[in-house]
Amino acid sequence: MNNPILHPEIQEFIIQNTGADLTKLALQKNPFPDVEWISILNQIEARTKAKDKLPTWFSAKDIIYPSKISVEQTSSEKTATYKASLIEGETLIDLTGGFGVDDYYFSQRFISIAHCEINEDLSAIVSHNFEQLHVKNSHFYADDSANVLNNLNQKWDWIYIDPSRRNDAKGKVFMLKDCLPNVPESLDFYFEKSDSILIKTAPLLDISAGLSELKSVKNIHIIALENEVKELLFEIHKNYSGEITLKTANIVKDKIETFEFVLGAKGQFPSYNLPQKYLYEPNSAIMKSGGFDEVSTSFKINKLHKHSHLYTSDDLIDFPGRSFEIEKVISYNKNDMKNELLNKQANVTTRNFPETVENIRKKWKIKNGGNFYCFFTTDKNDNKIVLICRKIN
């Protein structure tokens, strides 16, 4: 690829200045006057972003990065690795290729993949980077994905789509029809080209809203990284009309916390109890799934209250989330609070409680941090209580 950014001296400069203060660096004189200074600075900024998020790219030689925003919006390697483990086959076409992180990992699960990216410059960058990463089974098409599907005119084992929100789609609530490509509108066309489609959406998308726009959904995957939901995946199969399974995964340092349940399954009757010896707080992927009754029935643990989404048991279990040992339970009243928490240090969380963490801290002069975790919540008898705990994991 004939890009001046790849000149060895410029590449060395980018590597040496990764992590540098760009505000200060921008004020310096450009040591390479034949290349735009902003382009070099953009490479430094994007490479800095990639250090933790994209270590494979960061460690490779002669990688070209797109804009910082593209790096921020792309999948992390950890989520892409997990996502690729969900599907396999001979051929896959990615209709929204972007920076190609997902396709790098899909290429390890498929014999051949196609990367579609309407931005010609970005398509060329990804093609170049894949050469540097020694990926041999990928084909690149700098064109609208509908044109590529029509021109290639073949059947694919999988279609992968990561639609982007249109600029005019305002607010936190949005629909898939507000994205490009418009998947609901094009679904019948896609099913002519493949029987299996994987659609990635932002975590902002409401699951029920996604289901209202799509058909033939078999599985919904909720992927979190270090307890922050990063993406939803709708797995759809042509003519499928059976039950829908929600599968959650929270990728943490040394393990993946998984949980799954059938959406709308009958017979989910959670049990309730007052606080016992241990307390459990589900991870963010489970919280996004809404499977709160299913957590109680699956793990045979008790809910504190219908709307609290905290669980308790006398015997410690391996739980997909945070686990605590309850040291004391107090009523939320002036005397108990003065005796136990006034001017103390603790980590404060609220669940189904009428006051905010900020107000509680201010009102009772509770400093942040320390070894104690205080859950302000409501028990099964509708009493406001505080659980003073020590964290197990």
TrEMBL record:
Pfam families referenced in this protein's UniProt entry, alphabetically: PG_1098_Fer, Thump_like
Xref: InterPro entries: PG_1098_Fer, SAM-dependent_MTases_sf, Thump-like
Residues covered by the PG-1098 ferredoxin-like domain: 278-320
Domain THUMP-like: 321-391
Signal peptide: none
Organism domain of life: Bacteria
SUPFAM superfamilies linked: S-adenosyl-L-methionine-dependent methyltransferases
Name this polypeptide is given: Uncharacterized protein
